[in-house]
Amino acid sequence: MSELPEGWAVAPLNELAAVSGGIQKQPSRAPRSNTAPFLRVANVGSGRFDLADVHDIEISTDELERYRLLPGDLLVVEGNGSASQIGRAARWTGAIDPCVHQNHLIRVRPGPAIDSRLLELAWMGPVVRNSLRSMASSTSGLLVLTTKKVGAVELPLPPIA
């Protein structure tokens, strides 16, 4: 990481937030009786959500609690064919509740040491964007991030003051 302004620090994301995957969509998850709205990669833009076409998914009560999105969660796109789009993300505001997310989105839930707005701003900044591009692996043209790689991203942090 390049030199930071005086008083700034660097910390890996997994020390500041819980990083986890989502639910895999498969035929057995077709909506039947116990459903929840389900965000897909198509719903996540850079700093925004498109909620015009949100699908439903079959989910158990236990899974709903495990995968439920909370306001302040950052949803990160884990795969893309374009280096400029890898890791694009948006901060969830709770527009739909309950709501869960697919396995191609990585949920970053900030802990008490970082405000979700700061996390989103740092994530969109050039230091993190460049880091994501360099750590994404490629198979047949698709760049991919893992929860482990996302957790290892180093965030620049300003002084608390």
List keywords for this structure.
161 residues; alpha+beta; four-stranded antiparallel sheet; three-stranded mixed sheet; 4 helices; 20% helix; 27% strand; globular
Task: Give a structural overview.
There is one protein chain. By secondary structure, the protein is α+β, with helices and mostly antiparallel strands. Helices cover 20% and strands 27% of the residues. The chain is built from four helices and twelve strands, in the order E-E-E-E-H-E-E-E-E-E-H-H-E-E-H-E. The chain has helices spanning 61-67, 116-124, 126-135, 147-152, and strands at residues 9-12, 17-20, 35-39, 55-58, 74-77, 79-80, 89-91, 100-101, 105-110, 137-139, 142-144, 154-157. A four-stranded antiparallel sheet has the order 2-9-5-7. The chain has a three-stranded mixed sheet with strand order 4-3-8, with no helix packed on it. A three-stranded antiparallel sheet has the order 6-11-10. The longest helix is centred in the C-terminal third of the chain and has 10 residues, at 126-135. It is globular.
Q: In a few lines, what is going on in this structure?
A:
The chain is an alpha+beta fold and 161 residues long. 20% of the residues lie in helices and 27% in strands. β10 and β11 form a beta hairpin.
Task: Give the helices and strands, then pairings.
Blueprint: E1 9-12, E2 17-20, E3 35-39, E4 55-58, H1 61-67, E5 74-77, E6 79-80, E7 89-91, E8 100-101, E9 105-110, H2 116-124, H3 126-135, E10 137-139, E11 142-144, H4 147-152, E12 154-157
Parallel strand pairs: 3-8
Antiparallel strand pairs: 1-12, 2-9, 3-4, 5-7, 5-9, 6-11, 10-11
